[in-house]
Amino acid sequence: MVESGGVGLRERKKQRTRRALVEAALRLFDEKGYEETTLAEIAAEADVSTRTFFSYFASKEDVVFYDSETRMERAAAALANREPGESPADVLRRIVDESLVWLTTYEEFTFEDAGLRLRLVLKEPTLQARALMMLLESQARLARALHEAYPDKLDPVEAAAAVGAVFGAVKLAIITNMDNDRSLEQMWNTARRAAEITLSGLCSLG
Question: Are 34 and 124 in contact (CB under 8 A)?
Fold first, then answer.
């Protein structure tokens, strides 16, 4: 059966279970510590079996970075669906904006989750290493996609520099302003300002 919104009951149940696992994991990581929390405890907190946990995630790390691949897919889609005449700078600006909109409206994501996850990653060496590798991989993928979208305007080095500058600035600005940004609007403004400052200096991107 498919509901009027186009999402079947089975899919909605899967989304609820996935969301429950993410919320349970983040809550337990905050209360007990990342290393001290077991997969069985996360499953029990979400009222599912450990076997069900593995139907959604392969490890505790995967729960923390539950939306990373989806965010990468959305960024790639923004490039693929760019408007005629849209410049590289405009596309990068739109990717930042759409990422912020998605992060603040995504049903599995809250502002509290964002802060908790960021603090968790910053203090756990295992998660720091995973986050760094994912950051490098995602930016490399996006840089290749940007070059392929604008082969006559950007060579591979220019595309890589642009992606690294914009998204590096956004991430660093958010991290350094965690204690000051106490609302979604403040976090949004911080990220948007960092992107604008960087893009204004990338004159060659148009």
Answer: yes
Which residue bears the tokens 């209360």? Answer: 31
177: DSSP letter:
T
pLDDT in tens, 85-121: 889 999 999 898 888 776 665 555 566 777 788 889 8
Which two tokens mark 88? 């590289």
Q: What is the dihedral of CA 137, 138, 139, 142, to 10 degrees?
A: 120
pTM for the whole thing? 0.79
User: ∠92-94-98 over CA atoms, to 5°?
Assistant: 120
- Rounded distance, CA 192 to CA 6, Å? 33
Q: What tokens does 51 get?
A: 């076997």
User: Which residue type, as a one-letter code, is found at position 97?
Assistant: D
Q: Which residues have CB under 8 Å from 12's CB, separation 6+?
A: 3
Compute the distance between CA of residue 59 and CA of residue 81 in angstroms, rounded to an integer.
33
